[in-house]
Specification:
Elements: H1 2-22, E1 52-55, E2 59-61, E3 68-75, E4 83-87, E5 92-95, E6 98-101, E7 114-123, E8 128-138, H2 160-179, H3 183-189, H4 195-203, H5 211-216, H6 257-261, H7 273-292, H8 317-338, H9 361-373, H10 384-387, H11 417-427, H12 435-453, H13 460-497, H14 506-521, H15 533-543, H16 553-571, H17 575-580
Parallel strand pairs: 2-8
Antiparallel strand pairs: 1-3, 3-6, 4-7, 5-6, 7-8
């Protein structure tokens, strides 16, 4: 009995104890709170570097400043990545994802047909990839040179004789400016001691007695540096101005300038283009002799004249001689001979089937016409400011070393004569004009047609096309001259309005009048001129042979404005341009 009771008591105690623990009684050893399982830290994703770059297009047209090349696309395994691009050629930039030229930068096919560059793409994780790319430069019809169709590898373009005559005119002008300019210098330099010496010096550039001697003289027209320093390096055969002045070609001119047709100086037919040049030479030599004799000439207002080439009646002989030669030689030859089509076997009616050298006779005639326009072969690469030497890039002022030879080639890299006037009038237009581009583009198109057909006779359709290009080139060339006449009418009008004031300059007035007159005389030399013979005669009458400086100046001013109206109507110039050129 006792053992059974002990067993029951033990069971009761255990049960009571377990019950106290389960009820959370005051035990001295509480159960610990379980530790939560930690959240694992995610492993950062691996950044994949770009593996390729493609571009939507890989060519750009030459002469297109700021042109877009194409859109760049990066290949990257990270689908949502973002990219930035860079290029190692400083002429280019990337705008967003577009590869382009910088705003003021253009490429030139004649200097480089393609560009090799490296494009680098960088992703948002700063991983990068670079790729070499070649950007082709698309050639445009903008450079006056064509490979011979007869002799592959040779140029078919040649007009060195025209360059030589442009230089003769330039050098004659330089001679007058430096040796027959300031009276004080003339008195001290000792170059001339007689009138005959002055005439000989002037004539040596016009009616060349000994071309071999002349051709070895250093050129007075300077570039820095020049590829040619003498005429002999331009043309080895004899070149004169007198032989090419209007009236002295044996055939092909639309009027007989030596037998009554020449107008604009004195009574109609009273002189000839050649004799007018000799007359102007004589006037200059007379002024020199007067200075040698110790006599000080005076202008109509009683002021001393300090320049040999200024007359005492308002004329600047340097300007008259230069501008008239540009018209009676360069423009006359271009318009009335090489680019005309009224004389069988001459000009644009020359043979196109036979070969003179690397070119046909017709190709050569067209080139010689272009040579008298005077533009550098890459004329379209220049801004108007640069052709006028009035702004733009420092090494593009009138001329530029296009081929990178380190010197200026007069045959291809210099802008002469009328080409500069086209750009000057464009840059001075109130209502935009582009005479320079229109003329050059037409010359290029006509020359390309001849290059494409060299060795075969032109069809009627091809001749019509050629004459269309000629018409545009010649009309635009003449418009540039006519606009220049307007420009100087405006200058002379302003000068005459200043008579009696501190703003009046006799030298400026004489210069402006002589440039006006010299250019205006040339508007008779183009058979296809839009100015009628009657209007030309009236214009010359209104201008006169010298400015009116005393007496009824107002009436003369009115005459000049009437002359300007004639020019405006003939060439359909915008009224705002005519008022402001």
């Amino acid at each position: 009995m006792l053992n059974t009771k002990k067993s029951l008591l033990s069971v009761a105690i255990v049960t009571a104890t377990l019950g106290l623990t389960a009820c959370g009684g005051g035990s001295s050893s509480p159960t610990p709170t379980p530790t939560p399982t930690p959240t694992p830290t995610p492993t950062p994703p691996t950044n994949n570097a770009p593996t390729d770059i493609t571009i939507s297009a890989n060519s750009v047209s030459e002469n297109a400043a700021g042109a877009e090349v194409g859109t760049l696309t990066a290949t990257d395994a990270d689908a949502s990545d973002t990219f930035t691009y860079a290029v190692d050629d400083e002429r280019f930039e990337v705008s967003g994802d577009v590869l382009k030229l910088k705003t003021d930068t253009a490429l030139n096919y004649e200097q480089e047909t393609s560009v090799d560059l490296n494009v680098t793409v960088t992703d948002s994780g700063d991983a990068s990839f670079s790729k070499a790319m070649t950007i082709d430069v698309a050639d445009l019809l903008d450079y006056y040179d064509f490979e011979s169709a007869i002799m592959p590898g040779e140029s078919a373009v040649s007009y060195s004789g025209q360059v030589a005559r442009q230089l003769l005119i330039n050098d004659l002008n330089q001679l007058i400016s430096t040796e027959l300019g300031d009276t004080a210098t003339f008195d001290t330099n000792g170059t001339f001691t007689t009138r005959e010496q002055v005439m000989d010096a002037l004539t040596s550039y016009f009616d060349v007695a000994d071309y071999e001697v002349l051709s070895q003289r250093p050129l007075l027209t300077q570039t820095t540096p020049g590829a040619q320093t003498t005429l002999a390096e331009i043309s080895g055969t004899s070149k004169t101005l007198v032989g090419k002045i209007a009236g002295n070609d044996p055939t092909g001119q639309h009027k007989d300038w030596n037998n009554g047709a020449f107008e604009g100086w004195g009574a109609a037919g009273s002189t000839t283009p050649e004799n007018l040049v000799r007359t102007l030479f004589g006037m200059l030599a007379d002024n020199a002799q007067t200075q040698l004799d110790g006599t000080v000439r005076q202008d109509p207002f009683g002021n001393d004249i300090n320049t040999i080439f200024l007359t005492d009646d308002g004329r600047d002989l340097k300007q008259l001689i230069q501008k008239f030669l540009l018209m009676s030689v360069a423009f006359s030859q271009g318009a009335d001979d090489y680019l005309d089509n009224d004389e069988p076997g001459k000009g644009l009616l020359s043979d196109h089937t036979g070969v003179d050298a690397a070119y046909t006779s017709l190709e050569h005639q067209f080139d010689e016409g272009f040579g008298y326009f005077g533009a550098a072969r890459n004329y379209l690469d220049y801004s108007d400011d640069e052709v006028a030497a009035a702004g733009g890039r420092d090494d593009w002022q009138l001329f530029h070393d296009t081929d990178g030879s380190g010197s200026i080639d007069f045959n291809s890299e210099y802008n002469f004569g009328q080409s500069t006037n086209a750009s000057k009038r464009d840059r001075g237009a109130t209502v935009a004009t582009d005479l320079s581009t229109e003329a050059m583009t037409a010359f290029l198109q006509g020359r390309k047609l001849l290059n494409d057909t060299a060795g075969t006779a032109l069809t009627d359709e091809q001749m019509t096309e050629l004459l269309g290009y000629r018409d545009t080139a010649l009309l635009t060339w003449e418009k540039a001259i006519a606009a220049t006449v307007v420009h100087y009418i405006n200058d002379v009008s302003a000068d005459l309005g200043n008579i009696g004031t501190a703003e009046f300059s006799y030298a400026d007035m004489a210069k402006h009048w002589s440039e006006m007159k010299g250019f205006a005389l040339g508007l008779q030399f183009n058979r296809l001129s839009p100015m009628s013979d009657a209007d030309f005669t009236q214009m010359q009458t209104l201008m006169g042979d010298a400015p009116v400086l005393t007496g009824d100046v107002d009436a003369y001013l009115a005459d000049l404005l009437t002359a300007r109206d004639l020019v405006q109507a003939a060439y359909t110039f915008d009224a705002d341009n005519v008022a402001n050129w």
